[in-house]
């Protein structure tokens, strides 16, 4: 009985075990089914999510991170590997880098000796000129009759011109007799030259100096008549068939030992040192010494900023501006490195390709005064685009190239799964630009350093095109700051105008009265009733301000102007009239001509 009971109990226990096993199996099966259902639901959700527009913009899953597979990998990695074997410690490599930079600094300073003061054989200091320096100042700054620009004659001085003056042009109209000269070199005459001509461009035209700079001597000649036109050494001068109170001649000066311009030597030095840094180093942080070297190259060599007017040395001005601009530029460099440059250069083993593409692009952008000089766009403003020949076509071509580049970069960002965040970034930037466009009282000015900053995030990819684009944009930023400083993005109308036109109301001339006198001709000019917002009238004769007449003066009001010309004066004379407001002459009329025989041909009359 006991055995039977035990057997029964054992059977019951076996039955219970089987039941428990069945229940566990059913529970596990349900859990597996539920898990599979959850996975299917998640996968379905992801499929539905990626089937929409945003899902498609997210890119492939998993993302395809772009890296450069070096050509001839062993050859490109040989020099950094050799350096690592010779200098295995970080401290050793740091000392080596410091030594290279110290040698570069010594050589760089020695090359700047050409900018130190020099004297001619008589002990007179040689005057350093900027490309746009002239003896006669624009915008009536010489005063009535040119009183503030004396002396006019019996004076000479030695001068030194920088390089790259042949292509410097006036960017706002300048009056030269009956002409309004714009977007060309301001050289009037054929040695002698009119006093408002650019001295260095005139010296190039005369063959005294070349476009690489040089020294010469300026001799002031006083009044000169009939300035002829001639094309010489790539510059076509402007004719002027009347007289001007100040003329000058440029001649070579054997008494002056002129040092050569240092920019070629600096290019070889800086290019060689930065290439060595790029090829031999594997860390992306090499960007910082390269950035500083190229910044110094622009600030002192390839495109230095304008220095003080007619000084004896430009070096103190260049050092001051370099120190002023480098520190804030380095703060920007840190931001650019952390957000863009490091991602592009990190882990890159194609060191020769990096040097050719990235560093080459860096120099290409930094030397934009050479590399982009052929593009007929001087300033990216509506006025310049409207007035400068070929500017609209050039801008359209640039936009087409940019669209193609952007399309390629968008594709790579899509492959890496980063497209949405960069679309959001550029959407925010475009929104900011639109806000700037509607701010009253100021105009948006997109400087080329701003172009570099705006487009640089779109190059944070490790592809060969991105190496080129990033280098060029970094160079544009460096050139913009080292040459022009952090000029404002929002500028007032006065800032943008410079020495340009005010777009103001001009006097409407009535028919002048020309009468004969014993001494010659007397011409009486009158004009229509002026607006109540002006104070008087300024009169130019042959582009020289001869009178300012004010309506508030009872004895000498601004209702008329009389000009007497002696009978022996047979040259044409050119007259322009402009209103004066708050001590400033506004826009002048087109030139009216008083011919040598006493007849008059004027601009549109009221």
From TrEMBL:
Residues 187-238 form the LCCL domain. This is LCCL domain-containing protein. SMART domains: LCCL (SM00603). The lineage of its organism: Eukaryota, Fungi, Dikarya, Ascomycota, Pezizomycotina. It holds the Pfam family LCCL. The chain crosses the membrane at residues 94-114, 273-299, 319-337, 357-375, 395-415, 422-447. It comes from the Eukaryota. It comes from Paraconiothyrium brasiliense. PANTHER family: LCCL DOMAIN PROTEIN (AFU_ORTHOLOGUE AFUA_5G02970), LCCL DOMAIN PROTEIN (AFU_ORTHOLOGUE AFUA_5G08630).
